[in-house]
């Protein structure tokens, strides 16, 4: 009889009948139709049925009774296979704040599972990004890291992305992210710790260039931690190349000469030869010749002198051409003056 009354919308009658037979699940369903949400929650507790909790929870959400909806939701989120439907119900109606509040309250439950921590992290990344990193620092071991990584990348949360890459042991990606987004993601201590763990050694040399570009005063600290992983010969060449480029861009002839002398003092013959062309227009040929002769490097410097000679000859040829043109202009016959006889006639 109670079911017939319920189906016909006679909820008051159904309420009495269900109460008499202690059918708490059907009574809870009846009470939400009567708008008696608190009583519905109380009877859901007695019914102790996930289906009933969901029905009452959704009814409370529709009635914007979010405190009561949360009480019901806490009995639903502990089941991983029920979590998605519950979240969709809230999100489809735009109740993101209320959903976040419910998941926050659920984290302390004894039966809290990975899905809850993961979905809350994703919600934070979308709607409360300022809370994402704190959440991850506390619960990174309880989230599905690949899933949260994708969410953090989509939300452009670079610091959070680095944190997760580090915990997931994807050190190469962590370093690349820090160098690509230094303003948001780079931290000195964290960078030095992670760079020593990368699998791709080429990233170490990229890190050196990154420090030269953005953190030149800290380059020595980086070299200290990278020393075991670097090829020292390649590293010296790397810095020599950078020094040559810097000298060329400085337009300082004195600095360039000192750099050449340093290369020779250190026995870096190839760097000396390379500098002759990198800094070509800042060098005095007589100075280069003297250095090359004193260090027995005339053969190594010969391509430079050939280029110098070619330029000098080209200049001489141009001067000769100009001189010849000038002489031709001087020998052009000037118009003869008009001659007049004694009486003033031509």
TrEMBL record:
PROSITE patterns (alphabetical): CHCR
Pfam family membership, one: Clathrin
GO biological process, one term: receptor-mediated endocytosis
GO MF assignments: clathrin light chain binding
InterPro entries: ARM-type_fold (IPR016024), CHCR (IPR055358), Clathrin_H-chain/VPS_repeat (IPR000547), TPR-like_helical_dom_sf (IPR011990)
UniProt CHCR repeat ranges: 1-69, 74-220
Protein name: Clathrin heavy chain like 1
A GO CC term assigned to this protein in UniProt: clathrin complex
Source domain of life: Eukaryota
């Amino acid at each position: 009889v109670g079911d017939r009354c319920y189906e016909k919308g006679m909820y008051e009658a159904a309420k009495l009948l269900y109460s008499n037979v202690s059918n708490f699940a059907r009574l809870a369903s009846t009470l939400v139709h009567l708008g008696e949400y608190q009583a519905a929650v109380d009877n859901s507790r007695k019914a102790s049925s996930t289906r009933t909790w969901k029905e009452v929870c959704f009814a409370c959400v529709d009635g914007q009774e979010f405190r009561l909806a949360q009480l019901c939701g806490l009995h639903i989120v502990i089941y991983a296979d029920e979590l998605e439907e519950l979240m969709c119900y809230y999100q489809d109606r735009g109740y993101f704040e209320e959903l976040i509040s419910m998941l926050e309250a659920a984290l302390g439950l004894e039966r809290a599972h990975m899905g809850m921590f993961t979905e809350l992290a994703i919600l934070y990344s979308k709607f409360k990004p300022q809370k994402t990193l704190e959440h991850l620092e506390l619960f990174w071991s309880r989230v599905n890291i690949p899933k949260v990584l994708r969410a953090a990348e989509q939300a452009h949360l670079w610091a959070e992305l680095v944190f997760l890459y580090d915990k997931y042991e994807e050190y190469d990606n962590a370093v690349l992210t820090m160098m690509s987004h230094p303003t948001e993601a780079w931290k000195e201590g964290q960078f030095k710790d992670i760079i020593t763990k990368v699998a791709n050694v080429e990233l170490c040399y990229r890190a050196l260039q990154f420090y030269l570009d953005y953190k030149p005063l800290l380059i020595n600290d980086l070299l200290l931690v990278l020393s075991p992983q670097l090829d020292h010969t390649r590293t010296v060449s790397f810095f020599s190349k950078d020094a040559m480029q810097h000298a060329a861009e400085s337009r300082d002839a004195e600095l360039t000469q000192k750099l050449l002398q340093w290369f020779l003092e250190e026995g870096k013959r190839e760097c000396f030869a390379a500098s002759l062309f990198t800094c070509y227009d800042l060098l005095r040929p007589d100075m280069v010749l003297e250095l090359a002769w004193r260090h027995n490097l005339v053969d190594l410097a010969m391509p430079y002198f050939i280029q110098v000679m070619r330029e000098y000859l080209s200049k001489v040829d141009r001067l000769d051409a100009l001189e010849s043109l000038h002489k031709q202009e001087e020998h052009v016959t000037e118009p003869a003056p008009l001659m007049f006889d004694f009486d003033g006639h031509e």
